[in-house]
Amino acid sequence: MSHENESAEPLVRYEVADGVATITLDSPHNRNALSRRLVTGLQEALDRAGADDAARVVVLAATGKVFCSGADLSEAATGSMEEGARTIVALQRAVVAHPKPVVTRLQGPVRAGGTGLVAASDVVVCAEGATFALTEVKLGLAPAAISLTVLPRMTSRAASLAALGGEVFGAAEALEWGLVTRVVPADGLDDAVAEVCASLATGSPQGLRETKALLNRDLLASIDERGPDLARLSARLFGSEEAKSAMTAFLSRPKA
Prior knowledge:
Elements: H1 3-8, E1 12-17, E2 20-25, H2 36-51, E3 57-62, H3 73-76, H4 82-96, E4 102-106, E5 110-111, H5 114-120, E6 123-127, E7 131-133, H6 147-153, H7 156-165, E8 169-170, H8 171-176, E9 182-184, H9 189-200, H10 205-215, H11 217-238, H12 241-251
């Protein structure tokens, strides 16, 4: 497939029905990695949902088996990441500051930077088979930009184990540790998301907007205060020789 043809296809889809705006990550060829193009499309869709009078609730979803594999390492290994890190901070802020409740439909694995998107959401409905990992430590990195949302959600003990170990953990642990709201069997995921959205949609627009702002006031203030420094830290680590070497080795592994 040529780059031009690939560019012509949108990586994020937007649709509204029954008061719910569904924003779908649709980049399964790279496991919905946070490429520059996908992040731009996601930001545009969030802005659209915020202004859409037909939408009272926003759902974040993804196609394919993987919800989001994190930063696009093929981009990260070839250039400065400060812009990319600032964008990830801005994306989390857009979800936290969104005027409408954001519900994540988590159908499959989420890794590294994608976890920031999950943590920024107001409600996360997760399939039993979904898995998680803060893998940055294994690549000479730290979960810097996403710590803005991930650390406030998780217990401090859980965050230490997850971030320092970088190991995979499951949906039951994610629930116990505060990262997700509800875990359901995969075949009940759509019904569970619809149930949550129907409940949230009973709120008035002003009630939802002001209540969400109240709930997220401290989190939003922390993002605004610490975001620039953490983006710089992320960029410094991505640009280090240790991380570049680790990412190159990771990208050159034989594909299973």
